[in-house]
UniProtKB/TrEMBL annotation:
The chain crosses the membrane at residues 12-32, 44-77, 89-110, 122-143, 186-204, 236-257, 289-308, 320-338. The keyword Aminoacyl-tRNA synthetase does not apply. Its main location: membrane. GO terms for molecular function: transmembrane transporter activity. It comes from the Bacteria. This is Simple sugar transport system permease protein. It comes from Tepidimicrobium xylanilyticum.
Amino acid sequence: MKRYKEYYVPIFFFILSILGIIAAKVGFNFILGELYARFIRNGIFLLALIFPIMAGMGINFSITIGAIAAQISMLIVIDIGFTPGLGSIIVILLSVVLSIVFGNMIGTLLNRAKGKEMIASMVIGFLGTSLYQIVFMVAYGTIIKPFNEDILLTRGIGVKSMLDIGEYKNLFSNMLPIKIGNIEGSLVPIIIIIIIGTVVHFITKSKIGYRMNAVGENMYLAEKVGIHVDKTRKMAVIMSTILASLAQIMFIQNLGILNVYTGHLNLDVFSSAALLAGGATFKKVNIRNAFIGIFLFHTLFIVSPLAGQNIFKNPALGEYFRSFIAYGTIVFALMINLKNLEEAKDH
């Protein structure tokens, strides 16, 4: 039975998903279409959480900073007025540069908070959000003069809360078109996510991955064999931040709308919950957990409001199911992880 413990959480969510589909009374095509959209929008976010867990830092809730880097880059490109083709390239390059800078800062802070990385990363995410919102609510239009004043609020200070980027949404519309469920889309975003997932997999099996695993297992012994612990941990955070920024670019592009102040919120919680639903723990994770988790968690996330509405005959209660599922996943996985750790110590 011990060898199957890692499957307890995925099995639990698989059963919940089946029950949710039955209660929601929705068609298979509807679920497939929604899963396609959510896979594109959230797939890379789960991959961004892998490296810090390997390095023994737990869940990196500061991936919101990577998403902020992507939003800053997109805002700059929209402000200057680049064409969608050139703009996409500039957004990616600028996001990576900003993510390296921010990732270095986050890594340095988390190295000073060894043993408390998850709480520290959560606080860093909140702080980064506050600073980002202050810049674009107050500084933009006063200290920072925009190229395109149409993105500002009518008072001339602060960026509008929502910007239309429909031109970016149509970038892949005519490339490898497919129809999944009720949604027509492109195969290109799926290919991009699979390629990034393959790269992440190879990194986990490389020397860098070996060093991260060694640091995650025992920092003291890793240092004894010549591994630079702080540098390895910082590298894990930088790569996590870069992946999060690329994930947010995919999210924004697929949505076709940039929610300036709220577009990055809660993605850390939902991504963490999905990864844990896939069987990951705070100490052990792999690519399989990410891809299993995104389908299990988001299937339940899709059907839970409708299931709640049908069961309780109240639409408002259905929406509360989403938050309950997300936070409940983390609590449930935490309980399972703690229980497994206690049993491991006893043996």
